Amino acid sequence: MYMSGLWSKSVLAALSISLMGLGHTANAAVVLVNEFRSVSANANVSTPVGSDSVSASRNSLGDFSDFDESVEVDLTLEDASANATAQQMSRITTTSISASGAATASAEVTAFDPMFFTNASANANTNMSVDFEVTTAQLFDLSGAVSSSDFGGFSFGQADVSLRSQDGSFNLSFSTPFFDGHATPFDLSGTLFPNIYTLSANANISADAFGIEASSGTADFTVDFKVSAVPIPAAAWLFGSGLLGLVGIARRKKTV
Length: 256
Prior knowledge:
It is a single chain. The protein is α+β, with helices and mostly antiparallel strands. The chain folds into 2 domains: 2-23 and 234-255; 30-229, no CATH class. It has 2 helices and 12 strands; from the N terminus they run H-E-E-E-E-E-E-E-E-E-E-E-E-H. The chain has helices spanning 2-21, 234-255, and strands at 30-47, 50-59, 67-77, 80-92, 96-109, 119-134, 138-150, 154-165, 171-175, 184-192, 195-210, 213-229. Strands 2-1-6-11-8-9 form a 6-stranded antiparallel β-sheet, with no helix packed on it. It has a 6-stranded antiparallel β-sheet with strand order 3-4-5-12-7-10, with no helix packed on it. The longest helix has 22 residues, at 234-255. It is elongated and about 75 Å long.
């Protein structure tokens, strides 16, 4: 009778622990390691009356705080001009990374003198790189898009997003062609196993004008990345709880 009562109590305890575990998941185990985010733009103009250049940039503090920065440069000399802009908005937490960035550049020469070399150029960049460590398996969702456009003249650029592991065992990447840009959306999910990973996103564009011509282009990216704990099956809770109950019974039998 005593053993039967003890068994009933053990089973009841096992069921109670199992019910407490149903619907719960393992604690998130993602550690932020390092980050670098930046926006930059520069413009250069050279004409018969002289030449000049201007640049601007902003960098993150490396502390994973929200980054919301933009820069613009605009330069005009006689018969030539150049303009570039870059912006980024990004937020980093241990369970999500969201970001958007865009870079535009334009250059124009409105008069041509065969005795003098006249040109204008501009380029812009927006970059994001986040290193994080996964210590236990995590589910992930990665969605967004990269795009670039050439609006004429001699301009070229690219946008890309990648998620890679440090040891090379995991590699996802999305990019636009360097010259013939277009939009590339992506939406993937899966599992990240223990490793160190890097999520990066970049957009850059350059525009050049020689003689009487205009050139311009743009490149941009959006990223939405989330991780969540892998659900623990109810059967695992039941199995583990049952083992605890059996161990308790075995120990009790030895002391009787």
